[in-house]
Amino acid sequence: MKWWRVLAVAALVLAGCGEEQRSEPVPTPARFDELDRLPPKTGGFDALVKRREAYEAARRAEIARMRRSKSVEGALRVARLTGRITVGAEGSMRAEWTNANAVLGRLSGVPHTELAYVVNAVRSLAAGHILTADRLRPTFLILRQNVRFWKDQPVPASGWRTTFGRDPTIFQYYPGRGLQLQPLASWGRANAIAGACLAALRTKTTRDTCRRAAVTRSLDRLASLGARRSGYLAWEYYFAYGTGSPPWVSGMTQATAAQALARGYRALGYTRWKRAAERSLGAFEQAPPSGVAVSGHYRLYSFSPGHQVLNGELQAVLGLRDTSALLHSDRARRLFRSGDRAARRSVAEYDTGAWSLYSQRGAESTLSYHALTAGFLGGLCDRTDARIYCRTFSRFERYEKEPTRIGLAPLKGTRWDRARTVRFSLSKVSSVKVRVWGKRGLSLSRDFAQLPRGSHSFAWKPEGRGRFRVRIEARGPSGPVGVETRVVRVTTPAAKKKKPKKQKKANKRQAAGERPDTG
């Protein structure tokens, strides 16, 4: 029995022990917004009950009608009628939506393009019936900040990041997609300050290094921007990226968030952070596109199950390990062990012998990603003491100090009258300079901004014969330079020997079938 029925019955008992009273029938309105035109509250408690029943019937009918709507206003109405947002919040968001479209109409050029993407992204979520009540807060935060920014700010550089006021959320500029909420960057910073508090707690120096207010503000704010996704708490991305359409999730982000919340809980003791961390673990239990779990591995992007990125997988495993230890969570421990087994089997595939690969069977890492991967390997080495993590960590660190190894193919038989293909190999991705000197000075100068590991070549035609010096210089991502030199002797092609005249005549007679002259 619903609360209002209980209240009505109790009121009847108190008023007259169930005495029968007359009441007029109360019509059921066709639309929810017609409730205000119902008859006044007269006719006793039976009328009150019927009025409430009419209210509930009209509310359910209005929810069903608004769920069929593909508009942003319809999504807001559903959230309000289901009690997920207040009347004031609905009104405020409606005003923001109207204002965003009005500002868009006044912009031109790049600001118009950027804001248009954000506005259309919110509209597309509504049209796809995925602008749920949980997603209203993050999507309208993105909308609000873009409206404020593009009205009068200059166009920033690609990848530019910023915060607004005291809000700890980090935004990043993606050309053509506006300013977008960056959950990984936001949680990464929160993770760092929560980790500082945890370290201070262990060393009993909290007064000096633990910023309790910053931790509380960051974790509470970021946790509030999570959305329910297939039954778990997710910090989603609301813009298209690669082959992915919004909303999508990242295993790296989910693990970083759980790790930050677990650290905050252990340092400050707020159980709401523990609950949020545990609710986020569903991402590692579900396959794409809902989650990121693929045969024990944890993918970087939920929209790309075949794309395995080492740094993302290692951080997912590392974050789950810390979450299980700090929360004493059997669920997190089970997920960590599954990911740990898969990661140990695949780590060696990313080691080229001179550098790291960014993705499985993909290109080599940039310096920042190589260092990031090495850091995660070091963290797992410290926590698990697993040989594969420790050895790979040591090798990756050593690679940053080693110069590029260059192999230069033999150059014998080089002639001045022909172009020569000079072949060489690199042990790691490098920028390359090729110089060739001869008697007359510089014979060839070629620069390659970046070449991957493996075999390469260039064409060279000597100006003449003599000795030439070939020098190849390769600078790896971390700075050390490898050099290979070779001295080449360029020769003149051998002249054909002329045959004697008598021999020529003899050859002609022999060809004609005559006997050679012997006497």
From TrEMBL:
Domain D-glucuronyl C5-epimerase C-terminal: residue ranges: 233-397
InterPro entries named among the record's database cross-references: C5-epim_C
Protein name stated in the entry: D-glucuronyl C5-epimerase family protein
Disordered: annotated span: 490-519
TM spans (from-to): none
Biased composition (Basic residues): 495-508
Record-linked Pfam families: C5-epim_C
Originating species: Solirubrobacter phytolaccae
